[in-house]
Structures are given as structure tokens and as C-alpha cells.
Acyl-CoA dehydrogenase family protein
Amino acid sequence: LGRSRGTDYFKIADQLTPTERNYLDRTRRFVDDEVLPVINDYWERAEFPRPLIDKLAELGIVGDGIAGYGCPELSPIANGLISMELNRGDGSLGTFLGVQAGLAMQSIAKLGSEQQKQRWLPAMARLEKIGAFALTEPDHGSDSVALETSARRDGDSWTINGEKKWIGNGTIADVIVVWARDVADGQVKGFLVERDTRGYDARRIDGKGSLRSVWQAQITLTDVRVPEADRLPYANSFKDTGRVLAGTRAGVAWAALGHATAAYEVAVAYCTERRQFGKPLVSFQIVQDRLVKMLAEVCSMQLYCLRLGRLEEEGALTDTIAAIAKMNNTSKARQVIAEARDLLGGNGILLDFHVMRHLADMEALHTYEGTETIQTLIVGRSITGVGAFA
Ligand code: FAD
């Protein structure tokens, strides 16, 4: 699917429909022409690339495959290819799209009322409205199932109190999907909170060494009043939250493929040009061995992704499959990018060569949406029947 001499050794491109191919090409052009020339500066300045976000809207790729409500018609594979390509360009942009469409829009599409869908989804697909998904708390990350943010019903409205951490878009979103525990029945429920609601306070988390061009927030909710009409009616327990997360974990597997492809392509190009001991680096057997192993991992990640897409199309994507894919692809991508970084020698740590940014960004992908360990334990529970983490 990549370029240079290509990473498509298993002819994945032959498996794509013309429409999927079109989304791939369109996103690829955007990344090559608009993202790569400018993104390192945004990353270095930790600046949100607003002009690129506006162009994303024009591309018509925001909607995560949601049917109707102004969202583009995207098959799971088209959606995955978009995520792969955006992340090949930059992890912050890819993460922005994952939060906007995969987490916030999908929460509304899967768990919201008809009125909520009509109000938010078309505007979010056009990026006129930005969304966030607030699950993680300062004291509950891997065990977000134990979240402490409380929701108390009082007639026709709810009062929400608590703290959230690491919430992508939390300072800029128009609507934040806040997960809170109903004090009456102890179940986790979802609420649509608008940013200007009294008691909603979001502060940007600064000093990040990863995904520097997309912002996460620490949020305090103090007696935030939400009308019953803004509660997600089909979010009645943490299991419903999990329905949203299974899809986005598969999306991270595609994203990891994009990061690994970028690093591999830079490494091949660099080792072809760079000469040491009077010869190009690619003429040394050890360098070839390393490039081949990187390619083999990239190809295996592609095969995972293709099957993920097909299984999603068939409605057969399970939590366990999404967990295996997220675990495998983020771990493999991390290794491939580290190899590329090393093959570039000293230049490997310069932003100009892009690999360092991917190496840093991959660290966040490895952790968010459930760490590698948590994905491993989800799969371990499936193969042994024994839950080792709850
Ligand atoms: P912890 O849960 O404290 O984990 C620390 C370490 O302990 C990890 O290595 C973990 O694997 C390990 N560990 C934990 N439990 C076990 C166990 N039972 N057995 C063995 N090891 C264990 N959240 C949102 O809600 N919305 C967002 O938009 C969002 N965006 C994010 C963006 C970024 C850049 C980052 C870094 C995080 C984001 N998150 C978001 C939060 C993310 O999902 C959590 O960081 C992640 O789930 C891990 O939680 P934690 O950071 O609290 O780590």
C-alpha cells in the first residue's frame, strides 16, 4: 500500500473497491501535498494545525462509516485506509480524527437519540462542531470501569461532578461525551456536555513529548447541569461504552500501520542514499536484513487490518479481535519505527527526517485506548477463560 519500492507485497490494493482506492488516494495526496511540508513545525511548536483541520473537512472523510446524517459513505476498509494514511502523515491529525469521529461521533451514533444524532452528527462531519470523549480520570485509566465521576438525577436534569484526564479536544470541543456513574443505580451513563456549560473547566495538558499537535485536557466538572434530553439514552452501562471502544481499537491498529509504513519508507530511501565505507548502506547484508524484517512486520500489519475491515463489514468484529490487532500492530509499529530511527544514525533524531516524530507519537498510541498490557489481558481472558485483571 505504500510507495517507494512498495510495501504492498501481498497485493492488498487488489482487494480494494474503486471507492476505497479513491479514499486512499485522496487522503494520500492530502498528506503528501499539505501535511508533510508543514507538520514538523506545528509539532515542534505544539500548535494545533487548524488550517489542516479545515482542509480535512473539505476532503469529506470525517464520519467513521456512520450511515446517513451527512457522513460520507465509508466502508470499514475505506475508513481504516483514511486512518492509516493520516497517521502516515502525522499522529496528531490521526488522533484528532479518531477522537472526533471514532469516539465522539460514534458515541452519539451508536448510543444517542434521533434528535441528538440530527443535532450533532451532520455538523461534526463538516467539522463545524468539534467533539471529545471524556472517559479517563486522574485515578482511573486502565480501570476506567471504576470511574468516580458522579451523575445525580434531579427531575428533568442531572448534576455531574468529577475530574477527567487526557481528554483529546477537551479545551476546544463544542460537545463532550462525558461518562459518569449514576448514583442511583451505580451504572455508567453517557452525557452530552456543551463546553460553555457552567461548571465545565478544561485545561490543556502541556509538556508532552508525543502527539504534540493535538491537545488533551484535564477537566473538572463542578455541579454541571445536563438536561435529561442530553443524556445518551442507549448508554446504560459500561458495556455500552465498550461498544464504542471496540471500533476505535481497530482504528488504532490501522493508525499504527500508517506510522510503521512512514518510518519504513524513510529508512529504505535513506539507506539507499547514505554511503558509508564507500558504499550505500543498502549494500550491507545486515542493513538489508533489518529492512526485510521491518517490511515483513509492515506486511503482517496490513493483513491484520484487511481482515479487521472485512470482519467489521460482516458485523463479526469482537473485543478480543480488536484487542489482538491493537496489541500486535502498536507493538510491531513501535519496533519498526525504532529500527528506522537507528538506521538513520544521528539524522534519525532530527524532526526533518520525520521518523523521530513517529517514534514519539507511537508511544501515545501504544498507551491510549487501553495499553498493550490491557489488550493482552483481554486476549488472555479469552483464551484461558480466566480474567487476570479485574
Ligand atoms: P495506568 O492505568 O495507570 O497504567 C500504568 C501502567 O500499569 C501501564 O503500563 C498499564 O499497562 C499497567 N497496568 C494497569 N493495570 C494493570 C494490570 N491489571 N496488570 C498489569 N499491568 C497493569 N482517555 C479518554 O477518555 N479520552 C481521550 O480522548 C483520551 N486521549 C488520550 C490521549 C493521549 C495522548 C493519552 C496518553 C491518553 C489518552 N486517554 C484518553 C487516556 C488513555 O486511554 C489512558 O492513558 C490509558 O487507558 C492508560 O491509563 P493510564 O494512563 O491511567 O495508565
The mean pLDDT is 96. The longest helix spans residues 238-273.
